[in-house]
Design a protein that fits this description.
The protein is mainly α. The chain has one domain. Helices cover about 85% and strands about 0% of the residues. The chain has 18 helices and no strands. The protein has helices at about 5-60, 65-80, 80-110, 110-115, 125-150, 155-180, 185-205, 215-255, 255-270, 275-290, 295-325, 325-330, 340-365, 370-395, 400-425, 430-450, 455-480, 480-495. α1 (about 5-60) packs across α8 and α1 (about 5-60) packs parallel to α18 (about 480-495). It is globular, with a radius of gyration of 22 Å. This is O-antigen translocase.
Length: about 500
């Protein structure tokens, strides 16, 4: 694939998945705004804690089958081996079915312990028990997306994302408006329910498996691969979700529910505003990288291309977020969330390093280096927890944002070193320059905004405009056509 066509593929996938992510973010902001107005910081903090608990349990229950299933299906599809694709699909379906039910049962059995240890309130045991349904639905929905991803059904994944966002917003907001705080649990369960329903709809529309029935021995072989690799990926994913749960529990116990709500407000924005870029990596870049993983030069080229495009697309947004963090928090939440502004600025600064590290981290996923990926993810999250623990008594809730920046500085150095050792990887001079200039500009806006907010806004807007103009020029050059890039960007906004 030529450089031009490769960049076009990245932009095409980003426009499709990114357009869906934009809708997802917008509807997510509606849900968050309503919850913030009706429940306040304490309610937002509790929602975040319940979601984190459900996500952690879902990560354990899924056993990494989704990640590995995507890899197995993409690899078989790349070889055009219909029997192997059928075997991978059947193994993923039956394996996930068993794991989702088992995970939900275990979670329900532990509801008393979880309510007491995580929420610090045994009276929440019944409500925590209902989250078992959310665990089952999350695991099942994850397997559906994994199947669509492995088959490169990018359009279907985008449709699932958009329709799920619409339905979960209607259900979540409706329950809060009708029931108030009593509808909080249904608000949390709305997202996995919507994802499961629409995921099932689009999976059911896939062409039926035409291959002969897969022998049980072949299914066991598939499950062995899924379990061996998946366990490592599960531990890696668990490190992230448990780490977030530990930090939330730490904040809840040491600083109270109001501080937890401030952290959750900043965290929710940080995890969503560049979601279209990170989602495109998982949907398009990961399967392509898996198919080319034995070609060292192709891997190095693809990582550099993905990193450059991701930084180009994210740079204007990052600078606007840094300069206007106070306005954004006020718009999306309320004046009660003023403490979240400083947290968000630190996290957005860390997002520059996060975007640069993700293309490198996918090398470990694509090559099946589960243990290495597990150690990298676990080490980074342990560093985040340590920095938060050390910083909370000294810096207050702002320490969580600083810890986020420190975590991704550590993670970027780590994954770059691993990619360098395994594939001889190096960033191109253009990528190094782009990353360096963006980080310095972001740091300048961050400092100015903290010193004098108006100065941060002005400089942030100016820097965003400059980076946006450069990004447009560069992307037009890479796509080979100004008409093509305009269409892609238009689809990113309107799709």
């Amino acid at each position: 694939m030529s450089e031009e066509s490769s960049h076009r593929q990245i932009l095409r996938s980003t426009s499709i998945i990114g357009g869906a992510a934009v809708f997802n973010v917008l509807f997510g902001l509606v849900r968050t705004k309503v919850a913030a107005l009706l429940l306040g910081p304490a309610g937002i903090g509790l929602i975040g804690l319940l979601q984190s608990l459900m996500t952690t349990a879902s990560t354990v229950s899924a056993l990494g089958f989704g990640n590995v299933g995507t890899r197995q299906i993409a690899e078989a599809a790349g070889l055009e081996d219909s029997a192997a694709v059928a075997a991978a699909r059947r193994a993923l379906f039956w394996g996930t079915l068993v794991l989702s039910v088992l995970g939900a049962c275990v979670f329900w059995a532990l509801r008393d312990v979880l309510a007491a240890r995580v929420l610090g309130n045994p009276s929440w045991a019944r409500d925590v028990g209902w989250l078992a349904i959310g665990v089952l639905m999350t695991v099942a929905a994850g397997s559906q997306v994994a199947l669509l991803n492995g088959l490169r059904r990018i359009g279907d994944i985008a449709r699932v994302s958009v329709l799920s966002a619409v339905l979960s917003t209607l259900l979540g907001v409706g329950t809060l408006l009708l029931l108030g705080k009593a509808g909080l649990l249904l608000f949390v369960l709305a997202s996995p329910l919507a994802s499961l329903l629409f995921g099932h709809f689009y999976v059911a529309r896939l062409p039926k498996v035409r291959a002969v029935p897969t022998p049980l021995s072949q299914l066991f072989a598939q499950w062995r691969v899924l379990a061996q690799l998946g366990a490592a990926f599960m531990v890696a994913g668990l490190a992230a979700t448990v780490g977030q749960l530990v930090v939330r529990t730490m904040i809840q116990r040491e600083m109270g529910s109001n501080a937890l709500g401030q952290f959750q407000a900043a965290w929710a924005i940080s995890m969503t505003y560049i979601g279209f870029i990170l989602a495109a990596m998982g949907t398009d870049y990961y399967p392509r990288l898996t198919a080319a993983i034995d070609d060292r030069s192709a891997v190095n080229r693809m990582v550099n291309e993905q990193t450059e495009v991701a930084l180009l697309l994210a740079s204007p947004i990052i600078l606007i977020m840094l300069g206007g963090a106070s306005w954004i928090i006020g718009l999306l939440y309320s004046s009660q969330f003023a403490e979240a502004v400083a947290i968000l600025r630190w996290q957005v600064l860390g997002d520059v390093l996060k975007i640069a590290s993700f293309p490198l981290a996918y090398i470990m996923l694509a090559s099946g280096s589960g243990r290495t990926y597990m150690l990298a993810e676990g080490g980074a999250m342990a560093f985040f927890i340590l920095l938060t623990w050390l910083g909370l008594p000294r810096m207050g809730i702002q320490a969580t944002g600083q810890a986020f920046l420190g975590m991704y500085a550590f993670y970027l150095v780590l994954v770059y070193g691993l990619a360098r050792r395994r594939f001889g990887f190096r960033w191109t001079a253009r990528v190094r320059a782009l990353l360096g200039v963006l980080f310095v500009a972001a740091l300048l806006v961050h400092v100015l905004a903290g010193w004098y907010e108006a100065a941060g806004v002005v400089v942030g807007i100016g820097a965003s405009a400059l980076f946006g103009a450069y990004a447009m020029k560069r992307l037009i050059g890479l796509s080979g056509s100004s008409v093509a890039i305009v269409k892609k960007l238009r689809s990113l906004i309107l799709r």
